[in-house]
Amino acid sequence: MKGLRLILFLAAMMAVVPMAAADKLSELRQKADALHGGGKNDSALIVAREALDMATKSRNTTAIVGINSSMGVYLRTMGKTDEALRHYNEAMKLCTTAEFKAKADEDARQEAAALYLNLATLHIDMQHKKEAMYYAGLSVDWTQKCADKAFKAQMLSQNGLMFLMAGDNNKAADMLTRSYGYAMELGQTDAAMSAAAYMVATADRLGDRRGADMWRGRCRTLEPKVESTMTLVAYYQILCSIELNHENWRGALPLFKKILTIKGIEQMPFVVYDCYNNMHEAYARLGQWEQAYGAMTKAVALKDSLFESQKAESMRELTVKYQAKEKELELAQKKAELAETRMYVSTGLLVVAVLAALTVVYIMRQRRKARMQAEEFRRLQADTDRRLMQKYVDGLENERERLARELHDGVCNSLYTVQLKIAAGNGDAAGQAAMLDECREQVRRISHEMMPPEFSYADISMVLDDYLCQATGAGQCEITYEAVPEDADWSRVADATALEIYRIAQEAVANAMKHSGATRIDVGMRLEGNSLSLTISDNGQPQQHASAGIGRRTMRQRAAAINGQITTESEGGSTTVRLTISSLPEKKTRP
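Request: output the structure for the sequence above.
Response:
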């Protein structure tokens, strides 16, 4: 959801603030909007107050509504919600009067529609979804009364976005579809692309796959004609958010990479940071740790850069505020003594110096913290790689030793016996054939043990039962198997866990048959709630053979890999191996 939230935030910042007719008033409003667009909200408020005074003196009700609405946007951006609400309320007092409604011209209707859209945006930011939908509905009502189709296309798109954020997907679809129609009629490619992109997200939320594919197709058709970088970024961020919501990490990665190649993306550092941050998470979910580390490194570096830029901008804003205050003091206190003026100047410089020092200290701490985190991640990754490699090599060596013993003790000895009979000129062809058949059966059994079982078509109980049946037929030992309870759902056991249980059972049964001289082996498996236990009991002698010790070590390693414990108990003429797993991991559903 990170990508979608960023898109909605950027779209909400594009609040509609129509211009008044008067040249000077229009010039001031344009200047305030330009300052706001550049992130200089304090300066924008100063210019807006000047415009508001001019509109109040000329009793221009439409302009008063629009300027208060704009100031609400500036203050909301600065996080001053209470002051923003005060300006919105001043605007609503005027546009809810009977006189305003009766005399409203095109400009007034547009100002009212923009006001209610900005109120809807404020309530969405505050998670007041019911109120947001109410004001979005009022904005749509005023929009319908406007004649300007371009304005309608823009407003319906933004109000559709409000309904989408508030959870009313059907209303969102209606608003966005109408916005798309107006934009296409006017040949406004960027506006049509924005509406179509939001419709992709809406159709996905509605579970309408066919509709989502249709709107994706329309977006692909419009994409080559789109001129706005922000429009393209918003479209691909929507696609990314959909893939992330569906946990399609592999599908999201090329979309993030596409965003990073869009012309002009370097002017949107927060978007670039968001891409690398999400790519880091996607690579990590896929187990691609090297790529995850690379993406995280870029995100951390960009975050540091953004922090420095924000601090520099804050310092510039402080300078602007300070200079503005100095001007006001000069105009209001022309007769003030020079000493008093110097005192104010010294105080201001001291504040700036202290802030600068604190800023430098904070930046240095953040950089040091980032370096420590990066180093810790590198050490953890290297240590994990070493441990996994050692475990893998140990497993290979143990498996090779076991195969060597199997081939030497079984197949090689049998072949040697056949060789001796042939060399002695023994004409017993039937006996030789039987021994060769036994060799073939041993090789087949070794090959079968090397192959991992397929749990896609059978659960652990069925696979284990099949193996024990084959082991019974291949040896001189009676093997019994019981799985309780009878109605247990063994398919709940994850494939990786089931494979380790299967290998532990193989090793324990093979050890009992080869080294203990057992004539009977009892295998039991029990599933109770989220815990599982496996027992292998035999009536042979305790196993002292070296290879049996290796097998027990291998079983302990496999048990540890699935958070289980192996215990071995020898009493009298019997030995019991018990595997206990107190908490089974959750089985992941195959896509």
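The first helix runs from residue 2 to 13.
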